[in-house]
Amino acid sequence: MKPADIAVVIEDGVAYVLNLGYLETQQSPYVFEGPSFEIWTRIDGERSEEQIVDELTELYGAPREQIAADVHAFLTQLLELHLIEETPQDSV
Amino acid sequence: MGSSVCARKYSHRMSEAIDAPRLPGSVSLALGTVATLALLSSADIRVLVIKGPALEAQGLRAPRKSADIDVIVAPDDFERALNALGLAGWSPRSRSQVARLVSTHSETLIHPFWPVDVDLHSRFPGMVADPRRVFDRLWDQRQEVALLGLGVETTSRAHSALIMALHALRDPRSSRMRQELEEIASRVEAEPRLRAEIAFEAGQLGAHVTAGPFLVRAGVQAVEELGETPDKEALAEWQARSESAAGVSSRALQAILSQPWHKRTLLVTRVLWPTAQDLYMDVPGLGRTRRARLRARIARLGRGIRQIHARARGAT
Predict the structure, then answer these.
(1) In A1-92, where does DSSP find H-type helix?
(2) Contact residues of B toward A, CB < 8 A
(3) pLDDT digits (tens, 9 = 90+) for B259-316
(4) What is the pTM of this model?
């Protein structure tokens, strides 16, 4: 799930994400568009990683294995950047 | 999938690339504002957004493009605020000797990743009550507004209206400033409750005289009661601004008069005959030739001498 201290502006299918808790090391916003935007907007603390993979597979019509690997890599990257937090449940 | 999934950071390297994604102006302004507030708040510094899109959110002006993020902190927190922003990459924009002399109320900060500047104020020109008291009053009556859905703290509507009016009154010869003054005055005129608040607050902030033309135009009967003596530095700065016809050189000379004797000669020389670097900062479009610099210096020297002469005549 997303922590409280991030600021997000969504405009024209692009998410601009700023990590307010880490401004000294992450000084500018991240720009998520395309597939990364689709994943980012589905991280709601309720959907599981599997559900997100399912939805993107349907959206893009690409092989599920490829999407699963990409989603997992993206979520790992977000975790490392403290843009999302681990949840005790299955959800992200 | 057409492209791989990745987190793309809006980095310095990417911003220099031809096909780099750029932050839209409104986005960089909103996120930059939130970032500035977060950095200062985490250093336990009270900070308020002033001017810019906050005025639009308060219904005090029509939407327009803003290039700067303006924030104000208490005067005693100013240096700490510079340090806190510096830790996140914000650094003061280079200024000429003249600019440093005439503008002591704020510092403009720039950042390699952000396409907007931050103007950090320790007081606001035209509010000539004690700056600490002014900030406390602004802070006590602050309110929250939303910029692209992000909550930020700004001054009350009455204070914001005064700030907008004082900003416009700094250069009454500019048609744009006259237009801005007319805009805020007509909006205030239409709101009796806001007029009453401004009438009282103008006195509290020491703006009942400096904002006079605005108050008259908006039909505000100011309560002329200052809680204490006006701040000398703030008052002198405002008077120098409003008295000088050509502005900058005269204001610089006025500022020099407040400096110790031993510094004055050098400062006068630097103002009237600036270094090439200072000249290009003051006149960005100036040609890069020796002849262009010489003409600009002679013109400035002439203006300076005329202003000194006029000031001397006015004093007698």
Answers:
(1) 35-40, 49-60, 64-80
(2) 1-11, 21, 23-24, 26-27, 30-31, 34-35, 38-39, 87-89, 111, 113-114, 148-150
(3) 777 777 777 777 777 888 777 777 777 888 888 888 888 887 787 777 767 766 665 5
(4) 0.79
> Residues 6 or more apart from A39 whose CB is under 8 A from it?
A32, A52, A56, A71, A74, A75, B5
Q: Cβ–Cβ of A73/B5 closer than 8 Å?
A: yes
Task: With CB atoms and an 8 Å threshold, state whether B148 touches A77.
Answer: no
Q: Considering CB atoms only, which of B5, B8, B149 is closest to A31?
A: B8
* Cβ contact B240:B170 at 8 Å: no
Residue of B nearest to A56 (CA): B1
**Contact assignment for A7 to B89 by CB distance below 8 Å:** no
CA R_g for chain B: 21
Residue contact A7–B31, C-beta within 8 A: yes
d(CA B271, CA B190) in angstroms, rounded, equals: 45
Measured between beta carbons, the chain B residues lying within 8 angstroms of A34 are 2-3
**Alpha helix positions (H), B96-226:** 97-102, 131-140, 157-169, 175-189, 192-204, 212-218
Whether residues B9 and A32 touch (CB distance < 8 A) is answered with: no
Tens digits of residue pLDDT in A53-75: 999 999 999 899 999 999 999 99
